[in-house]
Design brief:
Elements lengths: L4 H10 L6 H13 L22 H6 L4 E4 L2 E4 L26
Antiparallel strand pairs: 1-2
């Protein structure tokens, strides 16, 4: 985890992420409160192309590992040794635009 916004910013820079200062504060606050973040935007702006998708069958057969948002099924973030985190969607790290602004 991280203890401050500056520590998070340093870790993100080391991982080659670009983050806006306002978004940085929002992420820190959400983490401190143990609350999820909701990514919003108009259709077609690219918000879903960076997350691992599932099917309706996946969501029906394993509801603890998938979340349905506006009809789209996404895989919840998980560690191979622990159950999925129901409030975090799994990013698709191999997407061509992942981590770019």
């Amino acid at each position: 985890m991280f203890s401050s916004a500056s520590e998070l910013a340093e870790k993100l820079r080391a991982a080659r992420y670009i983050i806006d200062p306002v978004i940085l504060e929002v992420v820190c606050l959400a983490a401190r409160m143990h609350k999820p973040l909701l990514v919003e935007g108009p259709p077609g702006c690219g918000k879903t192309e960076y997350f691992i998708r599932g099917s309706a069958d996946d969501a029906r057969n394993d509801p603890a590992s998938y979340v349905v948002v506006q009809g789209n099924v996404y895989a919840c973030r998980r560690d191979p040794y622990f159950p999925a985190w129901p409030d975090v969607v799994q990013p698709m790290r191999f997407s061509s635009g992942y981590g770019k602004r």
